[in-house]
Design brief:
The structure is a single chain. By secondary structure, the protein is mainly α. It folds into 2 domains: 14-50, no CATH class; 62-94, no CATH class. It contains 5 helices and no strands. It has helices at residues 14-27, 34-50, 52-56, 62-74, 83-94. The longest helix has 17 residues, at 34-50. The mean pLDDT is 82.
Length: 98
């Protein structure tokens, strides 16, 4: 069984997604079958599971990266020992491309 995702504004629950889909289809005078809803739920769960890598490989916000970069340049430490490099490298090392 595929693990169900946590629900956030960016990641609505499957029930919310089905409700929205049902309303859209209903507005066209159609109604999804239970099999169609189950197939859509399975598709959404598989899509969510397949994007785990992207969720895990989160870099600091761009503004934070620019601040780290500015400090590394200002301190004349822009090399592989700077916080700018080490923080981004840690994300890459902790979540290698598969």
């Amino acid at each position: 069984m595929i693990e169900q995702p946590d629900h956030t504004p960016e990641n609505p629950s499957l029930a919310e997604a089905h409700f929205a889909k049902h309303n859209l289809i209903d507005a066209q005078g159609l109604s999804p079958t239970a099999e169609e809803l189950k197939a859509e739920e399975t598709r959404l769960l598989e899509e969510y599971a397949s994007s785990q890598y992207q969720r895990d490989r989160r870099y600091p916000r761009v503004g934070d990266q620019l601040d780290l970069l500015w400090h590394a340049i200002d301190d004349e430490t822009l090399d592989k020992t700077s916080d700018f490099y080490t923080k981004l490298k840690k994300v890459k090392d902790d979540n290698p491309k598969g």
